[in-house]
Every structure is written in C-alpha cells, then in structure tokens.
Amino acid sequence: MTASRTVTARSAWHDVPRSQVHRFAETAMAEAPGLAEEIMSEIQREYPELPVVLDDSGEPMALVGIRRAIEVFVQHLVHADYSAGRPTAPPGLFHDFGRGEGLHGRSLDSLQAIYRLGVRMAWRRLAEIGQRVDIPPPAMYELADAGYAYLDGLVDQSVRGYAEAAARQAGERLRLQRRLMELLLTEHHRGDPAEALAERAARVGWPLPGKVAVGVLRRPAREAVAPAVGQEVLLDMEYEQPRMIIPEPDAAGRPELLQRALTGWSGAIGPPVPPVDAAKSLRWAEAALRLMERGLLPAGEVLHCTQHTEALVLLQPEELIDDLALKCLAPLAHCAPTNGRRLAETLLAWLETRGGAPEVAARLGVHPQTVRYRLRQIRELWGDEIDDPDRRFELELVLRAQRLRGELGGTRARR
C-alpha cells in the first residue's frame, strides 16, 4: 500500500529575506493605527447612519476591530510559517459586530460592503509599504489573495453573529406575538382591553386593526410546515390545532392570499369582529371545526363561518333543537318511519315555498296529487296549529336542522 502525501505549494514569502519581511511587518504595524482611523473615517463618510458604539475605554469598537484585524493579518507574516496556513480573523470582535448590525436592522449586504471598503483601503496601504521595502511582486500577489481570504473569515464571523441576532429577534417577536394572541383570545370582563391590546400590539409592531377574524386549522400532517400567510397575520403553530388572527379579513387581496397560502390545509375562520371580541370569533371557528369533524360541514378546506351561518346556528344548540323537535314533531310519532319522513319533507318544502301543491311537488320531484294527499294528512295531524306563525317558525327550524344533519332529504332552495 502506497502512502499518499499532500503537496503544499511553496509560499513566495519563503524567498523573501527575513530582514525584509520584518521591515515590512514593522512598518505596517507602525502605520496600523493611522490606517485604521483612515478606514473608519471613510466608512463613516460612506455610511453616515452607522452608529458609533464605544467600548469601556471610550474608544469606538469598530475602530478597535479594524486596527486589531490589520495587526493580526500583519503579525502572521512574522510569527507563523506562512505556508502552514492563511491568517485567520481574530475571534469575537467581528462576531459581535455582525450581531450588532442584525440587532439594528441593517442588511448583510451593507455589512459586506463596509468590509470590502476597508479591505481595499488596507490593501492599497500594504502595497505602498511593499514597494518601499522592495517586497517582490509574487509575494505581494500572494498577500493580496490572503487578504481576500481573510475578508471571507471576517464575513463568516459576522454572518454567524448576524444570524444569531436574527434568531434572537425572531424568538423575542414570537414570544411577544404569542402574548398578544393570548390577550386577544381571552374574554375581557373588566379594565380597558382596547388599551392593553394597543400596547401589546405596538410591542410587536402590529397595527391594531378595526376588525379581526380568528382561524383554527387542522394540520395536513404532523410535521407540516407553517403556511405562508404573511407577517400581518398572527399565527401560532404551537397549538395542536394552530390558530391565526387575521387583521381586516375583507381587505382587498387578503382572502385570495389566504386561499393560496392555506392550500392543502383544512379548518375554519370565524366571523369578523372588533379586536376586543376576538374570543367570540374563535368560539365560532372551533364550533365549525367540531361540525366538520362530525361530517356536518364540508371537510378538506378552510371554510368561513359566515358562509355556513344556518348550520352553525341550527346545529350548535343540539340539545335545545332536539327538545323542540320532540314537541313540534310529536304528531308524527305514531306514523310509520317512512311515511313520517315523507310527511316531514313535504311539510318543510311547504313551509319554505309558502306555495301550493304544484310548487311543493316541483321542489320534491313528485306528482302534485301526491303532495295534496300529504298536505291533507299534515293538516289532520297538526290541526289549526299549522296556521299559527310561531308554530310554523318552530317547525321550519327543527326540520331544517334535521335536514342539515342528513336526517331528511328534499331539495333545498338556492340562496
């Protein structure tokens, strides 16, 4: 078995007399403070919005970092075997600088532009010093390559600091957002909820809207990625059934955006309400979700409660409707099941159309004579009560509820 060896290219600096290398390094180190100040001044001129943060001694931290970066780069020529590796950025300083840029909301592009400006100025000065002490061009070319590799190291440190700051900010915003959602979805009984909501919303940078709608979602899969509903929509994925608070749900473009973002999800969105009443919108959304799980509302989509008002109103108070049905439909108790169902369907069609036998027959798809026969039976069963407006209203109420549950057939009028 033949052992393999890694061949390292010989550094051009090995051919430079050590006395020249030391003279270059000493000159560069002596000029490092002045060069750092020049770079700092140019950065401040190009980027006047950049804040000046002072260290404990009252010196600008950015100036300290620039000077330290120059010194580390130059010292590598004297104190290390150049062929053993490129100079590396001093740890900590530029990580902290990147974190500070992230916390102040500036972009990575602007940060890298600042670094490139500094490296260009530093390279010009080092090239001048190289000419003064007769450093051969190959060594200076090698130094230029090392300088840009060094820049990459500075950027890498800053990017890590920037990402850390971004993660912390995102975590803090998420924490504040959850507290805002908790307050929005809590029933308010005393105090000034509007004032408390405005204060919490301001901390998150969320303009308090005039109306909100609350949505409850069912995950298409346990590890489903959060839907891209946009930053204006408050979304909390920590719930088993994720919740979202939609500001101004009827605003131009908002319904279409939500429809695209929620493709593949199912759930329900409650009616629009003032922010202080968001808990009410949540209750309706949860009620709709329960009906979906029972198969009484369409599943496989995110439905809007305002489009299913009848089902939510009639199917929610189940015990009350059932009790009312026992009383109102008592005359059918002694009919055979099939006949009783047909009479109930005919009664509902008559109550909804308020028409004669031909209209009811057309609705049910049967012969008018059949309808006349059934209507005579209905009048015999209920007597004069069938003409009482309150009784007719109750009958229509319970029969509609039974139809929504699938207990009655018949054709429903289009709305």
Labels describing this entry:
415 residues; mainly alpha; 5-stranded mixed sheet
Description:
The model is unreliable at 1-7 and 411-415 (pLDDT under 50). This protein has helices spanning 18-46, 61-79, 93-103, 108-132, 137-184, 193-204, 254-261, 278-293, 309-315, 318-328, 337-353, 357-364, 368-382, 389-404; strands at residues 212-218, 234-236, 243-247, 266-269, 302-304. The longest helix is centred in the middle third of the chain and has 48 residues, at 137-184. Strands 2-3-1-4-5 form a 5-stranded mixed sheet, covered by helices on one side. It contains 14 helices and 5 strands. It is mainly alpha-helical and 415 residues long. Helix content is 58%, strand content 5%. The termini are far apart.
Radius of gyration: 38 Å
Number of helices: 14
Number of strands: 5
Inertia-based shape: rod-shaped
Main sheet overview: 5 strands, mixed
Q: What is the N-to-C succession of helices and strands?
A: HHHHHHEEEHEHEHHHHHH
User: In what range is the share of β-strand residues?
Assistant: 5-15%
N-to-C span: 86 Å
Name the poorly predicted regions.
1-7, 411-415
Helix content: 55-70%
| Class based on secondary structure composition and strand pairing | mainly alpha
Q: Biggest sheet: strands side by side, in what order? A: 2-3-1-4-5
Query: Mean of residue pLDDT?
Result: 83
Explain briefly what this protein structure is:
By secondary structure, the protein is mainly alpha-helical. Helix content is 58%, strand content 5%. Helix 11 crosses helix 14.
